[in-house]
């Protein structure tokens, strides 16, 4: 695999404020560099099968073993690699991969029972969520009513009133979900950080949609699940790909009508951007 064009920063822990600040800066600049490289298309479009299908599993292995060599990794430390999902199912879709071999091979519902690991995941996921929100803002603020006055002022179209501060920006983090699958299909444990919109050329089946917008998806906030919660989730999943598809935004039930849902998702995407 070709050497990525950006340099990567390797730091050891999340422990001190100074390190955290340093990492945040490195992380931001990496995000900026990667944005230019990778995240320009509005809707992720599938590439030819031959170039990507073979190696996803291997790639996740590389991403945790040799993050410095892997162009999909845009940030890493001793505990986690942050990667772009190779088959994004929404306009923004990142993965958080634990690098510890034992954790990487564990079932997420099992691994996240450990309060220490859960706490680490929360810290890392919060960073990734903030980056995902920034990415939404960078791409979609120009469509958003809540951003209009602020952008007009920044662009010099409007002037601030004397006693007025610059209006705050829209809370784009509301558009991001963080969580795991109750029955993950990939070998390496991963935590999804994904925008709600499900606007992507890679979203092709009911299963893809329901992976993220049904009880099959467990939000990170729901942890710890407790014994009962976990058993309940596990019981619920046996028929999960066949449950009705419910619009993430308006709650409309599309049953098994995927094509209709896709058309509706495009409309909802436009309206959501415009909020
Ligand atoms: Zn997954
Ligand atoms: Zn809807």
From TrEMBL:
Residues 28-48 are annotated as: Disordered. InterPro entries: HIT-like, HIT-like_sf, Znf-C2HE. DNA-binding protein involved in single-strand DNA break repair, double-strand DNA break repair and base excision repair. Resolves abortive DNA ligation intermediates formed either at base excision sites, or when DNA ligases attempt to repair non-ligatable breaks induced by reactive oxygen species. Catalyzes the release of adenylate groups covalently linked to 5'-phosphate termini, resulting in the production of 5'-phosphate termini that can be efficiently rejoined. It catalyses: a 5'-end adenosine-5'-diphospho-5'-2'-deoxyribonucleoside-DNA + H2O = a 5'-end 5'-phospho-2'-deoxyribonucleoside-DNA + AMP + 2 H(+); a 5'-end adenosine-5'-diphospho-5'-ribonucleoside-2'-deoxyribonucleotide-DNA + H2O = a 5'-end 5'-phospho-ribonucleoside-2'-deoxyribonucleotide-DNA + AMP + 2 H(+); a 3'-end 2'-deoxyribonucleotide-3'-diphospho-5'-guanosine-DNA + H2O = a 3'-end 2'-deoxyribonucleotide 3'-phosphate-DNA + GMP + 2 H(+). Residues 215-271 form the Aprataxin C2HE/C2H2/C2HC zinc finger domain. GO terms for cellular component: cytoplasm; nucleus. It is found in: Cytoplasm; Nucleus. Its EC number is 3.6.1.71, 3.6.1.72. It is an enzyme of class 3 (hydrolase). PANTHER family: APRATAXIN, APRATAXIN-RELATED. GO terms for molecular function: DNA 5'-adenosine monophosphate hydrolase activity; DNA-3'-diphospho-5'-guanosine diphosphatase activity; double-stranded RNA binding; metal ion binding; mismatched DNA binding; single-strand break-containing DNA binding; single-stranded DNA binding. Residues 67-197 form the HIT domain. This is Aprataxin-like protein. One of its GO terms (biological process) is single strand break repair. Keywords: Cytoplasm, DNA damage, DNA repair, DNA-binding, Hydrolase, Metal-binding, Nucleus, Zinc.
């Amino acid at each position: 695999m070709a050497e990525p064009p950006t340099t990567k920063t390797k730091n050891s822990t999340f422990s001190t404020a100074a390190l955290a600040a340093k990492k945040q800066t490195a992380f931001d600049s990496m995000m900026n560099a990667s944005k230019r490289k990778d995240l320009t298309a509005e809707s992720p479009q599938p590439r030819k099968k031959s170039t990507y299908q073979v190696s996803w599993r291997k790639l996740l292995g590389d991403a945790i073993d040799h993050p410095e060599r892997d162009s999909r990794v845009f940030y890493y430390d001793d505990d986690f690699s942050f990667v772009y999902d190779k088959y994004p199912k929404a306009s923004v879709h990142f993965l958080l991969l634990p690098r510890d071999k034992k954790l990487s091979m564990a079932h997420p519902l099992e691994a996240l029972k450990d309060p220490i690991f859960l706490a680490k995941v929360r810290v890392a996921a919060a960073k990734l969520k903030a980056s995902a929100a920034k990415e939404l803002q960078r791409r979609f603020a120009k469509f958003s009513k809540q951003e209009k006055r602020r952008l007009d002022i920044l662009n010099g179209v409007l002037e601030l009133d004397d006693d007025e501060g610059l209006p705050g920006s829209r809370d784009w983090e509301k558009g991001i979900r963080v969580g795991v699958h109750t029955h993950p299909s990939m070998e390496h444990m991963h935590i999804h950080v994904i925008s709600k919109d499900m606007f992507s050329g890679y979203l092709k089946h009911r299963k893809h949609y329901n992976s993220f917008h049904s009880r099959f998806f467990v939000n990170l906030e729901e942890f710890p699940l407790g014994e009962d919660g976990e058993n309940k989730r596990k019981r619920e999943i046996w028929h999960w790909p066949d449950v009705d598809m419910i619009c993430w935004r308006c709650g409309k039930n599309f049953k098994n009508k995927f094509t209709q849902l896709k058309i509706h998702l495009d409309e909802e995407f436009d309206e959501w951007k415009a909020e």
